[in-house]
Structure formats: structure tokens, C-alpha cells
């Protein structure tokens, strides 16, 4: 079982930066896929950045070059550095983690943290 808690959301102006953190509890964190997803009102929840246990990072096109996902296996932490934020980045951001042995597996979810970008 994995428990995920996000932090770092808030209100930020267009073009500014924000860093989200996700604290994970449970075993074998370094062997799990981790990622960040977001959901705006009326839209589906989409994984926007992820990193496998092997260190392979993937981003959706709309955040590529602006967002960076990283993990600290010693601290059981996942981060999302978000630069050059835009109003369309406004959403609830969720941390996700997978089951051991699965390469890309968004199975466990946190409660989410709100990010609002003002124009």
C-alpha cells in the first residue's frame, strides 16, 4: 500500500514558477513508477509528467520544456518544478505511484493540490 500527500500548490501569476512536492509512504518506493497528473473542471485527469523506476521521464507536449519531474528515493519524495506557468495550467494536481514491477502504472493517488495561475 502507498499513501501519497501533495503540497506546494497555490495562486501564482502568469509566467512565474511553483514547485510541487509529494511525500510517499510505503515500501519499495525506488521500484515504483511515479508521476503527476492534473485535472481542470470538466476535463479528465491526465498524467502530465512521469518517471519510471529506471529513471525514464516523459512529459506531455504542453508542459515539455517548462516542467521538470524528479524523485528522491532516499526521502520517498517526488517533485514537479513548474516554470513559465500559464493560466491554462490552472488545475488540481495529483501525485500518482504504481505497483512494484510495473513499468508505467498510475495506481495509487494523492488527494491533490490546487494550482491557480492568474493572467
Broad structural category: mainly beta
- Give the low-confidence spans: none
Instruction: Give the amount of beta strand, in percent.
Output: over 45%
Nearest-integer average pLDDT: 96
Instruction: Figure out the total of helices.
Output: 0
Number of strands: 11
> H/E element string?
EEEEEEEEEEE
How far apart the termini lie comes to 40 Å
The coarse silhouette is globular
Largest sheet: 7 strands, mixed
- Please state the CA-atom Rg, rounded to the nearest Å: 13 Å
State the helical fraction. under 10%
Tell me briefly what this model is.
The chain is an all-beta fold and 119 residues long. It is built from no helices and eleven strands.
List keywords for this structure.
119 residues; mainly beta; seven-stranded mixed β-sheet; 0% helix
Structural notes for this entry:
It is a single chain. Helices cover 0% and strands 50% of the residues. With 119 residues, it is mainly beta. Strands 2, 4, 5, 6, 9, 10 and 11 form a seven-stranded mixed beta sheet that branches. The protein has a four-stranded antiparallel beta sheet with strand order 1-3-8-7, with no helix packed on it. It is globular. The protein starts with a strand and ends with a strand.
Q: What order do the helices and strands come in, and which of them pair?
A:
Elements: E1 3-7, E2 10-13, E3 18-25, E4 34-39, E5 46-51, E6 57-59, E7 67-72, E8 77-82, E9 91-97, E10 108-109, E11 113-118
